[in-house]
């Protein structure tokens, strides 16, 4: 007897997030470059990757990637040089993540293990993680948790930061995460293993999106 496939609670949100990447294929080689912790000149990215600057410019505009006053890239879809609650160290270089989920995706995009320090927005204490392309390798404190968010396609398209990124955090305990989640109906408490599973799903969905466009 065939069993009906039940849609997972965050599956639609993951699809909406991945849809933003349809024009971002040419930007993939830029992630390891930005992970060096310095603003990226578009022409330098073009020379390094062999991708025409015009294509990179178009993808940057479509993705609404942030630039500095000199026009250099300081953000790629949420991996940013602008300080956030999620500080990432890559070979002694510092970048930041827009949200907890994205911190779990970044190692896959740059092919390196990272060290993450996330500020619990309730306790103002640090959650420290080591995350490789294969997943979470270590976490302190034991018992740390996270939140995920459910967001509509319209909300993600209009303001992904407010609709999703600001809702997805690391916490020093499940109790702290539950306090945060109680403040908004879109937030749900998840274990770090579940957050990593969602990150894996998002990475696969992004890969499908950029190669089907």
Please, could you describe this protein's structure?
The structure is a single chain. The chain has 213 residues and is an alpha+beta fold. It has a single domain, classed as Beta-Lactamase, CATH 3.30.450.410. Helices cover 39% and strands 21% of the residues. It has eight helices and ten strands. The protein has helices spanning 11-19, 30-34, 42-49, 53-62, 100-110, 153-163, 174-181, 192-212, and strands at residues 75-76, 79-80, 86-90, 93-97, 114-119, 126-132, 135-140, 145-149, 170-171, 187-191. The strands form two sheets. Strands 1-2-4-3-5-6-7 form a seven-stranded antiparallel sheet. Helix 1 (11-19) packs across helix 8 and helix 5 (100-110) crosses helix 8 (192-212). The longest helix has 21 residues, at 192-212. The radius of gyration is 17 Å and the shape is globular. Residues 1-6 have low confidence and may be disordered.
Ordered list of secondary-structure elements with their pairings:
Layout: H1 11-19, H2 30-34, H3 42-49, H4 53-62, E1 75-76, E2 79-80, E3 86-90, E4 93-97, H5 100-110, E5 114-119, E6 126-132, E7 135-140, E8 145-149, H6 153-163, E9 170-171, H7 174-181, E10 187-191, H8 192-212
Antiparallel strand pairs: 1-2, 2-4, 3-4, 3-5, 5-6, 6-7, 8-9, 8-10
Helix pairs in contact: 1-6, 1-8, 5-8
